[in-house]
Each structure stands twice: as structure tokens, then as C-alpha cells.
Amino acid sequence: MKKKTYNLLLLKKKISKNQSFKEISSLSKEKDKNRNAVKSLNDLLNNSKSNIGELMTSGDLKNMSYFQEEIRKRVEISKSRENFLRAEIKSKMKELSKIKKQEDVVKNKIKDIDYLSNEEKEKKTEITLFNKGSGL
Hints:
Elements: H1 3-47, H2 58-135
Helix pairs in contact: 1-2
């Protein structure tokens, strides 16, 4: 393959790498937001508990129980989401490392092509100099 093809491939790998960085960054931000939401929900759940000995009607008790159950459901959903985001970030990190390795391989190929072309140029100049020297 020609050097131009490898340069285009290298450019493609750099674009893929940047895209992966952006995806990892947005997933990390989403994970942080989710973690803050879980913390807020847990605080809300802890604050919504009734004091022992406080008189409540059955309707109030039922409403409080329903409210706490809904918060618990949302906390579980948020924790599940956090686990998913963690797995997704890990997957993107593996993909990023694979792209970096591929980029290194392409860079090495470009160096090899440059080295071979320089060697070829040197041989041509040696042949030219030899031919000029023998012609005199």
C-alpha cells in the first residue's frame, strides 16, 4: 500500500479516537449526574421517614409508604443505570485502546515506507554517481 493510503487510515483512526474520547466523556458526565441523583433520592428517602410515636392517619401512613416505595424503585433504577454506564465506559475504554494500537501499527507502517523509500533513493543516487564516475 502507498503512504497516502496509510496517512488516510491514520487520519481515520485519529477521528475514531476523538469520537471515543467524546463518548467516554459524555458517559462519565451522565454517570456523575446519576450518582448525584441516587444521593439526592437516598437523602429524600431518609428525610421522609416518620418520627416514632408521631400520630398519623391511615391515609397519611399509606401515602408515606407509597412515596417511600416509589423512591426506592427509582433508586434501584438509578443504580441499575449506573451499572450499565460503568459497563459501557469500560467497553468504550477497550475500544479506545484497540484504536490506539491500530494507530500505532499504521504509524509504524508509514515509518517503514519512509525508510524503504529513503533507501531506494540512496541506491538510485549511488547508481547515478557510479555511472557518472565510470563514464569519465
